[in-house]
């Protein structure tokens, strides 16, 4: 099942690797959680892999399992597979990946509109949040789920994004919605769900999609506005402005050079070392290890090959590992155990050298460089007098972007008391309270407003 030379720039052939001899039944028997034996074979393999992880002690993983959105009972089936097979481990958390396959389901008359996918994916989550007893296994499973991902072939051509897209219940054509459409409705529903789960004292979720591996660079813009972090992101090399914004917001980018090397970009052209040198929030990750790796330690393969090809120092390796922990969706107490009790603080104060092996001088350099860039933007941002004509709507999707990044997560944790006090303020204080999260947002919004007025006057 390994990806070979014939998969390069041919994602369709890569997908066929999961169907040996062109027969999907083999995949269904051995690699599915929902089949005639209730996924017992896959569960046994998973237990063996988890056992190896527990023996190594020093690897924590976030496994991806799929929810397709074809029916309402998918969540319950997946949760029962995990619970009944006792697939719980201190070394494992789960990410839910949602394939962008609306067009296939629509063609087979499995669904009537895109609205059906949204309902099938999110309705059970709202139900179990309201009443855990309604889906008991799902309630238990969600305590180990840390986020959502969306996957498919990004290189597929998409129709241009129009301002007036149909609503999900009106999207009934056989055409697949574009990437940003999927991402927006995932983000919107997750925002509501997370708020309710937070009020109820339950775990919340992050959005970390596959993004920027191929296709339109607009995918990266959509992810920038909605996501906590992304996987791949190699197309940022073609869009310096977006690359700069990802740097300013310190949005996590989990890169998989060995996967890219087989599918879209040869190893020597991978931008990871350049991104890392520039200070983007980069980590190394595996991607489809069954396809791209040859040993029982796929993550070690990623690190060892990267170290040899790009001449990474021990400090570089340790910084990448530290970034990986920060980007992950693991609980705060776990992160404290691995990289120090003050991990969420900025600069040297958040670095525990005894745990991370990252020298303070490296962390200080990263912090001061980023701070200098942000200070430069702040100096050129409009004054409060200039901002008076701007409304909260002018900032939506601009001032809020950085709130999804790991940097802002760290900031919020270190200012929890201030945040609680700010919740009591009225809406008139919105600009004062939120502008600090992304200096320069006012300038971006002002330019957008000027462009809008200029376009109107020209017409």
Automatic annotation (TrEMBL):
Q: What EC number(s) are associated with this protein in UniProt?
A: 3.5.4.6
Name the segments for region: Disordered.
Answer: 416-438
Q: Which cofactor does it need?
A: Zn(2+)
Q: One MF term from GO for this chain? A: AMP deaminase activity
Protein name (database record): AMP deaminase
> What PANTHER family is this protein classified in?
AMP DEAMINASE
Write out the biased-composition intervals (Low complexity): 416-434
Q: Does Metal-binding count among this protein's keywords?
A: yes
Give, as in the UniProt entry, the pathway in which the protein acts.
Answer: Purine metabolism; IMP biosynthesis via salvage pathway; IMP from AMP: step 1/1
Q: Which Pfam families match?
A: AMP_deaminase
What would be the name of the gene that encodes this protein?
A: AMD1_4
Q: Which organism is it from?
A: Rhizopus azygosporus (Rhizopus microsporus var. azygosporus)
Q: Which GO terms describe its cellular component?
A: cytosol
């Amino acid at each position: 099942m390994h990806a070979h030379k014939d998969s390069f720039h041919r994602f369709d052939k890569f997908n066929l690797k999961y169907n040996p001899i062109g027969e999907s039944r083999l995949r269904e028997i051995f690699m599915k959680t929902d089949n005639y034996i209730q996924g017992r074979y896959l569960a046994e393999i998973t237990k063996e892999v988890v056992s190896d992880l527990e023996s190594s002690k020093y690897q924590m993983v976030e496994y991806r399992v799929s929810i397709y959105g074809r029916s309402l009972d998918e969540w319950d089936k997946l949760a029962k597979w995990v619970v009944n097979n006792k697939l719980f481990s201190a070394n494992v958390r789960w990410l839910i990946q949602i394939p962008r396959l609306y067009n296939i389901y629509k063609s087979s008359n499995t669904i009537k509109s895109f609205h059906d996918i949204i309902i099938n994916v999110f309705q059970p989550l709202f139900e179990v949040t309201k009443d855990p007893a309604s889906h008991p296994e799902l309630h238990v499973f969600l305590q180990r789920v840390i986020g959502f991902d969306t996957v498919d072939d990004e290189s597929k051509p998409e129709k241009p994004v129009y301002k007036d897209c149909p609503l999900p219940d009106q999207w009934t054509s056989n055409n697949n919605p574009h990437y940003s459409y999927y991402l927006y409705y995932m983000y919107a529903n997750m925002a509501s769900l997370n708020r309710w789960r937070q009020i109820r004292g339950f775990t919340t979720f992050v959005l970390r999609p596959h993004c920027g591996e191929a296709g339109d660079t607009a995918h990266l813009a959509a992810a920038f506005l909605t996501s906590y972090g992304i996987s791949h992101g190699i197309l940022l090399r073609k869009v310096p402005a977006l690359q700069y914004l990802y740097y300013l917001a310190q949005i996590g980018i989990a890169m998989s050079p060995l996967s890219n090397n087989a599918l879209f970009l040869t190893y020597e052209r991978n931008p990871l070392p350049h991104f890392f040198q520039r200070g983007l929030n980069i980590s190394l990750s595996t991607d489809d290890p069954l396809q791209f790796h040859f040993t029982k330690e796929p993550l070690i393969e990623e690190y060892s090959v990267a170290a040899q090809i790009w001449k990474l120092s021990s400090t570089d390796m340790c910084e990448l590992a530290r970034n990986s922990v920060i980007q992950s969706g693991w609980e705060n107490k776990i992160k404290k155990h691995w990289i120090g009790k003050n991990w969420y603080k900025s600069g040297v104060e958040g670095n525990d050298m005894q745990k991370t092996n990252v020298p303070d001088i490296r962390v200080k350099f990263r912090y001061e460089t980023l701070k200098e860039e942000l200070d430069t933007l702040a100096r050129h941002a409009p004054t409060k007098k200039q901002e008076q004509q701007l409304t909260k709507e002018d900032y939506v999707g601009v001032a809020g972007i950085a709130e999804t990044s790991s940097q802002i997560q760290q900031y919020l944790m270190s200012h929890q008391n201030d945040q609680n006090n700010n919740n009591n303020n009225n809406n008139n204080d919105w600009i004062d309270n939120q502008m600090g999260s992304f200096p320069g947002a006012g300038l971006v919004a002002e330019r957008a407003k000027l462009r809008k007025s200029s376009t109107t006057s020209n017409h």
